[in-house]
């Protein structure tokens, strides 16, 4: 497979490892970008972008980044905290009165951002088309009761509801749609090719998402799959399948257009690396808010993902001792994987910002081994 792009010669082994991903016949397309100290040292892409395998992945190809989107929404919210328009520890219901229903009158933005608000799923079955109706989804979450007693401080990842919960606060505090807020606050100032709510004119650049077959993933992935297939009422099942269109919509125009800042950001590896470089160098948040975002708020068994997770505010924190939960570099790394393999993160100790994007979805729950291997190798190349 011919790899396009640029790499500093120090990272030649990383370029070779990226090329080796395509030895697997199921690997379709991918891109990798790494910045160190704000300087781009790797910017590579290869493979195919379309469903039929006839269109090459280009320099400007973008893809659905799934949950890599969440930290962008969190940073927009934290900027509003800095401006005094949101508060981490004031009840959400002050800004969104309907949210107080069903015992949620004391839930805060902080709890939403670190997945401790007990709202990873909606119990009542929703129609497939509800996914694209903001008012329906926000209303359902405003009426929902927490799935557990919030006094126990446990957490359960909100794979899709995070977008309406945090997004509704962005709408009310910033006076614009979540994607417009993220564009104005993050993407445009940093020059990132990143979009939540993609314009139809950009559709021709979007890589078609496909799933690899035959790989069941690790034990965590198999555990989650077993529950979702056998327990339709379970929290985990509802989180990923209600509305039922959540898991099979990523190539649809309606999905691309939607402002859903949990899961439908579209961008490239460059935009992920650029975002984390902007966090590391202070362009997006002052040091005190970045420290708040990246300090541990919750760690332990995740009620949704059924594996151990560790969260800051809108980001996952590294768990070096856990094979499926480490970004592959320093213990202070923070960022977010996306479903199927894409990943963005920062390693503050190395001043390294990392972005990996793929349209060949793997089955893993947290970190995909492809991204981990590339990250570890980047560290070795740095010495």
What does this structure look like?
The chain is α+β, with helices and mostly antiparallel strands and 383 residues long. It has a single domain, classed as Beta-lactamase (3-Layer(aba) Sandwich). The protein is 32% helix and 15% strand. The protein has a seven-stranded antiparallel β-sheet, with helices on both faces. The longest helix has 14 residues, at 161-174. Residues 16-374 form the Beta-lactamase-related domain. InterPro entries: Beta-lactam-related (IPR001466), Beta-lactam/transpept-like (IPR012338), Beta-lactamase/esterase (IPR052907). This is CubicO group peptidase, beta-lactamase class C family.
Cα-atom radius of gyration: 19 Å
Would you count the extended β strands for me?
14
Distance between the termini: 27 Å
Percentage of residues in strands:
15-25%
Global shape: globular
CATH architecture field: 3-Layer(aba) Sandwich
List keywords for this structure.
15% strand, 383 residues, alpha+beta, single chain, Beta-lactamase, 3-stranded antiparallel β-sheet, 7-stranded antiparallel β-sheet
Short description:
This protein is of the alpha+beta class and 383 residues long.
């Amino acid at each position: 497979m011919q790899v396009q792009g640029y790499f500093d010669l120090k990272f030649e082994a990383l370029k070779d490892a990226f090329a080796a991903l395509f030895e697997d016949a199921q690997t379709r397309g991918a891109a990798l970008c790494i910045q160190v100290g704000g300087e781009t040292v790797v910017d590579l892409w290869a493979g195919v972008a379309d469903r039929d395998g006839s269109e090459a992945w280009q320099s400007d190809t973008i893809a659905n980044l799934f949950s890599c989107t969440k930290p962008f929404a969190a940073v927009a919210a934290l900027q509003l905290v800095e401006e005094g328009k949101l508060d981490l520890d004031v009840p959400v219901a002050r800004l969104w009165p309907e949210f107080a229903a069903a015992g949620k009158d004391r839930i805060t933005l902080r709890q939403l951002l670190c997945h401790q608000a007990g709202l990873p799923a909606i119990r009542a079955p929703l129609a497939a088309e509800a996914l694209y109706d903001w008012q329906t989804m926000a209303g359902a979450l405003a009426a929902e009761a927490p799935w557990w007693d919030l006094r126990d401080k446990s957490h359960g990842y909100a794979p899709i509801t995070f977008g309406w919960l945090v997004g509704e606060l962005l709408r009310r505090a910033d006076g614009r749609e979540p994607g417009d807020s993220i564009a104005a606050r993050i993407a445009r100032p940093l020059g990132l090719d990143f979009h939540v709510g993609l314009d139809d004119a950009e559709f021709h650049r979007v890589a078609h998402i496909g799933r690899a077959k035959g790989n069941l993933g690790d034990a965590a992935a198999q555990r989650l799959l077993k529950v979702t297939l056998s327990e339709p009422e379970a929290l985990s099942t509802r989180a990923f399948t209600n509305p039922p269109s959540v898991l099979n919509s990523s190539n649809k125009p309606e999905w691309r257009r939607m402002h859903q800042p949990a899961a439908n950001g579209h961008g490239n590896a460059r935009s992920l690396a650029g975002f984390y470089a902007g966090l590391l160098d202070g362009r997006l948040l002052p040091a005190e808010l970045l420290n708040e975002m990246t300090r541990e708020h919750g760690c332990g068994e995740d009620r949704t993902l059924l594996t151990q997770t560790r969260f800051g505010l809108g980001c996952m924190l590294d768990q070096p001792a856990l094979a499926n939960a480490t970004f592959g570099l320093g213990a202070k790394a923070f960022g977010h994987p996306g479903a199927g393999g894409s990943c963005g993160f920062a390693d503050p100790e190395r001043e390294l910002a990392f972005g990996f994007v793929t349209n060949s979805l793997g089955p893993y729950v947290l970190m995909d081994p492809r991204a981990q291997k590339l990250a570890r190798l980047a560290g070795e190349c740095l010495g």
